[in-house]
Design brief:
Arc Repressor Mutant, subunit A, elongated, DNA-binding, HTH-type_Tx_Regulator
Length: 189
């Protein structure tokens, strides 16, 4: 096996274990055991658990940042932008569901520059969504509700979608996008 693919295998295995047990409860020995190799072999490919966590979280955070940059850079109504945000959240959920568990549950274990980088990306992301919501309210596209309530309702649903998605038998992505947009933008009544 090539070193790059072994590193990916290590990160994938660790991601699954982090989701099942949490970052603190997983050791390098646990990762090696799950892969059927010796723990010392892991260090030929990766420096340690912190590198794994950073790789997982920052990869997903960059996906969110790239998606947001595409939304913000294009013209469109606030509603159209929110629809695109919901759609790429769903795409990221489908692609990175295990890594999302680390992002949501274990980000606080990041260290130094990785922690700062993640927090900055998360804050910028939320600021962009907040701006889109406020612009939509100002333009009359979105009901005049408190922007923070809208932001919280939308992002808390989208951030935990990975939990629901796996339990519900992995609903067709196109149906999920259509119905999530409808429920989050129009409500249920």
């Amino acid at each position: 096996m090539k070193p790059a693919s072994r590193k990916i295998e290590i990160i994938t295995t660790a991601s699954r274990l982090f989701k099942e047990k949490g970052y603190n409860a997983v050791s390098m020995r646990d990762i090696a055991q799950a892969m059927g190799i010796k723990a010392s072999s892991l260090y030929n490919h990766i420096s340690g658990k912190q590198e794994i966590l950073s790789t997982l979280i920052l990869t997903v955070a960059r996906e969110f940042t790239n998606g947001m940059e595409q939304v913000v850079s294009k013209k469109g109504t606030s509603v159209e932008k929110i629809e695109k945000i919901i759609a790429f959240h769903i795409d990221i959920t489908v692609t990175y569901s295990e890594a999302l568990a680390a992002l949501n549950n274990d980000w606080m274990h990041l260290q130094d520059d990785d922690l700062k980088q993640f927090v900055n990306m998360r804050d910028d992301y939320e600021d962009n969504v907040r701006i889109i919501i406020k612009e939509g309210i100002k333009a009359g596209e979105i009901e005049a509700r408190h922007p923070e309530v809208i932001l919280f309702s939308m992002l808390s649903t989208l951030r935990t979608l990975y939990l629901w998605y796996e339990k519900r038998g992995k609903l067709d992505v196109n149906i999920l996008k259509r119905d999530m947009v409808a429920v989050l933008l129009k409500g249920i009544v």
